[in-house]
Fold:
Amino acid sequence: MFLDQALKKKINLKEGKDSNLKSILKSVSWRILGTIDTIVISYLVTGKLTMAVSIGSVEVVSKLLLYYLHERVWENISKEKTHETNKEFA
Structure:
C-alpha cells in the first residue's frame, strides 16, 4: 500500500506530464512486447529459435534506448509549446 503510493508520486509529478521514471517504465514494458514480436517474426522467417533469440537480444537494447530518447524529445517539445503559449499571453 505504501510502496504504490510512493511510486505513484514519483511517476506523476504533475497531472498530464510524464516523469523520467514513467518514461523508463513505459520503455521497458513496450520493449518486452516488441522483443517478443521480433523473436516470433525472426523465428517465422529463419525457422531457427537460436537465431530468433539472438536477433531479439540485440534489438532490445538499441530500441529501448531509442524509445526513451524519443519520449524525452516529445516531452521537451510539449514544454516548449507551453512556454511559447505562456509568452504570448504575458
User: Anything to note?
Assistant: The chain has three helices and no strands. The chain has a mean pLDDT of 81. The CA atoms of residues 9 and 15 lie 11 Å apart.
